[in-house]
Amino acid sequence: MNTTIEEVAQKALECQETCNQCFSACLKEDHVKMMAECIRLDRDCADICGLVASFSSRESRFTKELIQLCAEICQACGDECQKHDHDHCQECAKVCHECAEVCRAYVA
Amino acid sequence: MNTTIEEVAQKALECQETCNQCFSACLKEDHVKMMAECIRLDRDCADICGLVASFSSRESRFTKELIQLCAEICQACGDECQKHDHDHCQECAKVCHECAEVCRAYVA
Amino acid sequence: MNTTIEEVAQKALECQETCNQCFSACLKEDHVKMMAECIRLDRDCADICGLVASFSSRESRFTKELIQLCAEICQACGDECQKHDHDHCQECAKVCHECAEVCRAYVA
Amino acid sequence: MNTTIEEVAQKALECQETCNQCFSACLKEDHVKMMAECIRLDRDCADICGLVASFSSRESRFTKELIQLCAEICQACGDECQKHDHDHCQECAKVCHECAEVCRAYVA
Question: Mind telling me which InterPro entries this protein's record contains (chains A, B, C, D) (predicted)?
């Protein structure tokens, strides 16, 4: 069963939202220092996911290349989030990894 | 019944998608010249709606001000789209006007 | 002497860059916790400044409204940065306040 | 002589501006239909160039990957613009090709 571009766009928007929520929650934690890399990657991931949704809905001819890069950034963000016990990080890791997988499935 | 920030963010994402689809469809029409203003406003509206969704999910303190501006741009985009008979324009007009209303309800 | 839209766009791009550099530098500080509000506002300010530059160069009819909001966010970001002694915060405060002023002068 | 990240960011911002000006000018032409692909690519190129400038100034670890994709989009946008005689398209072609080259030199 093939992954559609609509599934990618939908998951990318969910991932953007989750990354932004994690970004905001990380900045409220007591030990923000520990979350620095998470905060950086949340922002990168939210930006690229937002652009994927925009490129796909306007049928850009570079949608596929962007999705390929999105898979990498989602994977890295998910891997980083997974290291932290906070609920928002665990939730973000889950959604980022799902998004990475959907992106890879689409590109394949 | 109050309009929640989640409703605004959800509608803004729907509006971003619809504006991007309208942007792409306008560029495929035979008379693109007539659609120039629609194409411009679709892009403006998609950009501001995307930023509203991002600001709200990361709890920016300027979310409300941005939503106020979003209401204006959605209204203008919906008004322009409404002038054109194409299905994508009529659909876009509907969603833009809904988004403008949700934004105004939230700010009020 | 009037402030031109080109001056606004130029200053907004400088402000976007400075805010992003401050964002990154804040995340390298020992006491990131203290910088949380600065990190948030750096991101908001960079986003809105980037959109101002984009709206102005494509002659969006909402450029002026966006610049008005940009002035507010730049002012808030500059005020927050000013509280911190780090060179990157002081530099960011300076550029944000300049950008706020250029924006206000243009809108006036 | 090596290409620095500052040179990439600087050229990307110039390219974003030129693409946005070309986008707006294309929509004022008599034969907008002919410019449809140019309008699409101008938007894609402006978006990716803006993100490159943002990623680089905040020292994202994905800056290089994004620059690689930016080179491709700039090349495609420059190739399309080059087909059209309008001054804004010729100017945009020149800057896009320069940006593609700077991006490739940096990644190499």
Answer: Csp_YhjQ, YHJQ-like
> In which domain, by residue range, is A64 found?
5-107
**Residues on chain B touching C69 (C-beta within 8 angstroms):** 62, 65-66, 69
Give contacts of A 8-67 with C, CB under 8 A: 24, 27-28, 30-33, 35-36, 39-40, 43
Distant-in-sequence, close-in-space partners of D17: CB < 8 Å, separation ≥ 6: C9, C53, C57
Average pLDDT value over all residues in chain D: 97
What is the DSSP code (8-state) at residue D60?
-
Q: How far apart are CA D52 and CA A65, in angstroms?
A: 15
Specify the pLDDT at position A32: 86
The CATH number of whichever domain residue A30 belongs to comes to: 1.20.1270.360
Q: Which of D13, D46, D54 sits opposite C46 (nearest CB)?
A: D54
Tell me, what DSSP letter sits at residue D30? Answer: S
Provide ipTM, 2 decimals.
0.95
Say yes or no for a CB contact (<8 Å) between A44 and D55. yes
For residues D80 and D91, what is the distance between their CA atoms, to the nearest angstrom? 12
- Please compute the mean of the pLDDT values over residues B25-32 and round it to a whole number: 93
